[in-house]
Amino acid sequence: MEKSGVPQRTQSMRHDRSDWSAAITLLTAVLLVAATSLVWFSVRKSHDNHIMEQARSEIENFAARLDAHVKLRISLGALIGEEWRNGLISDVNTFRFHAATKLNYFNDLQAINWVDPEGVIRWVNPIEGNAAALNLDLRRLKIPAEILAMSEQKKAVQITPPITLAQSGRGFVGYMPMFMDGALKGFINIVFRTAPMITNALPKNFSTRMHIRITDDGTEVFSSTDTAIKAKHAAHATIQLHNRTWTLTGELSANEIAKHASFRAEWVLLAGFTLTLFVSYLVWIAMRHHYFVQDGERRFADFANVSSDWFWETDADLKFSYFSGRFEDVTGVAPAKFLGRTREQIGAPGSDPNTYAEMLQCLRDRRPFHNFEHLRIKPNGETVFLSISGKPAYGQNGEFIGFRGTGRDITEEHRSREALNKALVEAEQVNQAKSEFLATISHEFRTPLNAILGFSEMFRAQYFGPLGSKKYEQYANDIHDSGKHMLALINDILDISAIEAQKRSLHFEAVKIPEIANDCARNFEFQCQEKRLTLSVDIPATLPSFDADRRALVQILLNLMSNAVKFTEPNGAIVVSAKVLDDDMVITVSDNGIGIAEDKLSRIAEPFFQSNSNPHIAQEGTGLGLSIIKLLIEAHGGTLDIESQLGEGSTVTVRLPLSHAR
Fold it and tell me: Please, which residues have CB within 8 angstroms of residue 259's CB and are 6 or more apart in sequence?
């Protein structure tokens, strides 16, 4: 029995072992499949997240560049508008000259046109290639007519959706309304060629890295691919172009996605199912890959925070250890020239010394810095302007490992800023020349005018005997009155020109407002009696003295009281008051006269602004009175404020500092 039993137990044990082996093998297989599946899903998810993060970074960077490109070009319209308001543009030739200087900067603009208030294109620049648009009635075209109406109504730039241009091709148009004295004078029309403009905004090699599609309310504006963009890896961004919203959709190209794949997930499955002896090794590889992906995500998150055109890194000693390939493309400098050297050693040519010192201190203090600007001269002699940003980086255990940052080429932005600054300086010089001219020519006019006044006075007084006819006396009176009015006009022009040219100096001294206000009020006693007006000065005698130019203060009060007397109906009342508020002397002239229309208040103190409905400037006046006193008040460091309602009266408030450096 024993002999026959031993083989049975041994066989049973073998069966048990086989069962256990099978079970363990099956369990191992299940665990390996589960582990492999988990790793596979983790790799795919990490890979997809990394692709989405890269796609978002790329599309947001491009959206910012495109937004800046469009708005920079639209700002040309504002600059032309300022030149038009300043009188630099008056006809088609001056318009073409100023428009041509703007078009030279951007080759993706089709034209800059002038549209009259009726919506007809009258001036075109350049005329070559745009002749079809000349005399085109935009209000007969559905989309341009709607945008013109919106632009006029909102008094702001409005942009069309994508349209077929009259000059041929696809594009869109911006309309900027030009108003003067509240009336529409026309529109500045900027015509954009969509494809060239968007292509110019694309970063270098962008089309090889990413497929993009841009839409405006569902209408395609631009597409870099003929195939549909897959929703799985698509990233989105929007830009607001005044009244239009553009939606940017993009996905990384297949080649770009392949660059970010450390290995295909299918190989994980194959290795997990077939190479069971190397499970631990595969786990180690997977963990290593996991940490690699985490570190890569942190690095790219840092880069995304300071989005730009190239990447750079330093070590813990602040020595450069890495530059991406784009650096050499932009600067013409091989990265090897700077590797192993600090920023202080390589310098920053063309930078502001104070800003450069602050940036170096940020590096030493391990603080982030943004948009540090300097220039580089490439081997071909071309100058490029750069903007650098960076932030400190720390390792897994919190130890400082150096700086990571980005740089971008801002040459185009720098040149645009320089062009705009130059235009502003030239405008200021033109304005200064105008003031100098008016001051000079006004002096020249006064000599013959004084002679006219003198001789007409002699004719009126008939110093050398009767003139022989009443008509001659009437003519002599008319000549004298016209000469006086002309001399008053010249004096006002001379006064305002002298102030603008800073040739009228103020002599500050301690003055008492009660004394000056009462003296000024006595000048209007006769006029008040004639119109049955009450002019009262309600100023406490205890008010302290304050620093002011006495002559200028008298001129301010006389002008304000004169306006109040002129435009207050019989039996009306005028009150002049003053008080100390904070560190200012606050002087108020109130009346219950006919008031000022609300649409005139914002421009009432502008030179020569005058109309029959403007109650604070006499019909026979020059329109310079309030302009002069406003300049005098500002020269004191004060402010002028006017509140009024038609039929209820006006309140003019002048605030002047109590003290002034003498």
Answer: none
CB neighbourhood size of 6 (10 A) = 10
Model pLDDT for residues 461-501, shown as the tens digit of each residue: 676 777 777 777 777 776 766 666 666 666 666 666 666 55
**DSSP SS3 for 120:** strand
| CA angle centred on 12, ends 6 and 16, rounded to 5° | 145
Quote the distance between the C-alpha of residue 441 and its chain's center. Answer: 38
Q: Give the sheet arrangement for strand 639-645, strand by strand.
A: 534-538, 573-581, 584-591, 649-657, 639-645
CB–CB of 283/307 below 8 Å? no
Domain limits of the chain? Answer: 71-197, 306-409, 425-500, 508-657
- CATH superfamily of this structure's domain 508-657: Histidine kinase-like ATPase, C-terminal domain (3.30.565.10)
- How far is the C-alpha of 240 from the C-alpha of 246, rounded, in Å? 6
The pTM assigned to this predicted structure is 0.38
Instruction: Show the tokens assigned to 396.
Output: 């897994």
CA distance 235 to 251: 6
What does the angle CA 585 – CA 589 – CA 593 come to, to the nearest 5 degrees? 165
Residue carrying structure tokens 């009262």: 536
**Token pair of 269 as six digits:** 């499955």
Phi, psi (deg, nearest 5) at residue 599: -75, -5
* Phi (first) and psi of residue 590, to 5 degrees: -115, 145
Percentage of the residues of the chain whose pLDDT score is greater than 90 = 25
Q: Which residue has the higher pLDDT, 275 or 249?
A: 249
Between CA 593 and CA 234 the distance in angstroms is 67
Cα–Cα dist 48/587, whole Å? 70
pLDDT band, residue 611 (cuts 50/70/90): very low
Query: Which two three-digit tokens encode residue 575?
Result: 């009150």
CATH level 3 topology of 306-409 = Beta-Lactamase (3.30.450)
How far apart (Å, rounded) are the C-alpha atoms in residues 625 and 528? 20
Q: How far apart are CA 125 and CA 89, in angstroms?
A: 14
| pLDDT tens digits, 295-326 | 665 665 555 444 447 889 999 999 999 988 78
pLDDT of residue 470: 73
Q: Are strands 639-645 and 649-657 parallel, antiparallel or unpaired?
A: antiparallel
Q: How confident is the model at residue 13 (pLDDT cuts 50, 70, 90)?
A: very low
- Domain 71-197 CATH superfamily: PAS domain (3.30.450.20)
- Give yes or no for a contact between 425 and 346, defined as CB atoms under 8 angstroms apart: no
Q: Tens digits of per-residue pLDDT, 578-590?
A: 999 988 999 999 9
Is 617's pLDDT higher than 50? Answer: no
Give the pair of three-digit tokens for residue 630: 């406003």
